[in-house]
């Protein structure tokens, strides 16, 4: 690549930045929305998988296995293009959020379940000896410790969601990647816009990693145990 080509790439990347930055909040909104919705759903699925009630445990296990065993892109197609055949039509935004939320919930449930199981059984026994109920034990003793264990994986899931939002571009959601494609359709110069989009994804992921490390340092000071 000669100097003239490098200059052309640089100019196309810079000219694409305003459009890409305008779409960045959409990408962040999808990622944060899926995380905020997926976290309580994932917690519920984790508790279902830990339940002593067999049918509930089986249904939740099948859900996790199906979501983790199929590509997110296929899940988006099933929800956005498949559901209308059953009489359920969704907007691109709703379809994208639902697909990302269900996907995140399945992975988050495994993280939460593993974190809960990592807490020594003695913590449960000590809480019981102090007269705490099952729900109090979970809320006051187990979850604070499990949160510290799960934090790195939870943060990684959010970073992964930021990148996974690029897949909703296939259902015409104008997020970061789709914006780059629209710029390319006007300029016929793909390298610069795609490179600019990649750099924005990288910056977002790097900032989230900094937040993750700060939270890990705070949690590393320890949480109270019984």
From TrEMBL:
**Keyword Ribosomal protein on entry:** no
Has keyword Membrane? yes
List each copy of the ABC transmembrane type-1 domain by range.
24-212
Organism domain of life:
Bacteria
Q: Where in the cell is it found?
A: Cell membrane
Gene3D superfamilies according to UniProt: MetI-like (1.10.3720.10)
**An example of a Gene Ontology BP annotation on this entry?**
amino acid transport
Concerning PROSITE patterns, the annotation shows:
ABC_TM1 (PS50928)
Q: Which GO terms describe its cellular component?
A: ATP-binding cassette (ABC) transporter complex
Give the main location.
Answer: membrane
Membrane topology, record value = Multi-pass membrane protein
GO MF, any single term: transmembrane transporter activity
Any idea which UniProt keywords this protein has? Amino-acid transport, Cell membrane, Membrane, Transmembrane, Transmembrane helix, Transport
Record field: transmembrane: 32-50, 62-83, 89-108
Q: Which family does it belong to?
A: Belongs to the binding-protein-dependent transport system permease family.
Q: What is the official name of this protein in its record?
A: Amino acid ABC transporter membrane protein, PAAT family (TC 3.A.1.3.-)
The source organism is Deinococcus reticulitermitis
Its lineage opens with:
Bacteria, Thermotogati, Deinococcota, Deinococci, Deinococcales
